[in-house]
Amino acid sequence: MRASAIILSPVVAVVITMLGYDTISPIDLTKTRIMITERRIIAYVSANTRLPKSLSELPSEGSNYDDDLHDGWGRELIYAPKGDGYVLIYSLGPNGKGGKEAIAEGFQIELRPTSRQSVPATSESSSRP
C-alpha cells in the first residue's frame, strides 16, 4: 500500500502541473501587477516629487520582484495622469475592450500618490482631458 502512494505522488504532481494549478490566473496577475505598479509610482513620486511621464520611467524593484508592466493577457498596463495629481492605472481586461466590466473586476486604480505635497503634472498629462 505504501509503495502505491509513493508511485502516485509524482503522477499527481505532473497532473497538477499540467492542469495549471501552480500558475496564477490572468485576473489575479493583472490585479497584482496594477498594485505593484501603484506602489512603484508612489515610491517614484517620493523620490522625485513629480509623476513619471510614463511607466517606463519607474525603476526596477530588483530581481525578486515582478516589475512587468503587462496585464495577465499580455497587453501593456495603461497609465493615464489626469493633470490634477491623480493617476489612472488600468487594464482593458480579458476582452481587451475595458469598460464597466473591467472596472467592476478591479482592473483600474485611481490614485493621488501624495496628499502632503502638490505633485506637478507632467507635460504630457496637462494636455489630456
What does this molecule look like?
36% of the residues lie in helices and 9% in strands. It has one domain (25-127). The protein is globular. The protein has 3 helices and 3 strands. It has a 3-stranded antiparallel sheet, with helices on one face. Strand 1 (78-81) and strand 2 (87-90) form a beta hairpin. It has helices at residues 2-19, 26-48, 100-104, and strands at residues 78-81, 87-90, 108-111. By secondary structure, the chain is an alpha+beta fold.
Task: List strands and helices in order, with pairings.
Layout: H1 2-19, H2 26-48, E1 78-81, E2 87-90, H3 100-104, E3 108-111
Antiparallel strand pairs: 1-2, 2-3
Features:
129 residues; alpha+beta; three-stranded antiparallel sheet; 3 strands; globular; disordered C terminus
Question: pLDDT under 50 segments (min length 5)?
Answer: 1-16, 115-129
What's the helix count? 3
Strands ordered across the widest β-sheet: 1-2-3
Order of helices and strands: HHEEHE
Radius of gyration: 20 Å
Number of domains: 1
Q: Beta-sheet strand percentage?
A: 5-15%
Specify the helix fraction band: 25-40%
How many beta-strand segments?
Answer: 3
* Major β-sheet annotation: 3 strands, antiparallel
* Mean pLDDT score: 74
Content-based structural category: alpha+beta
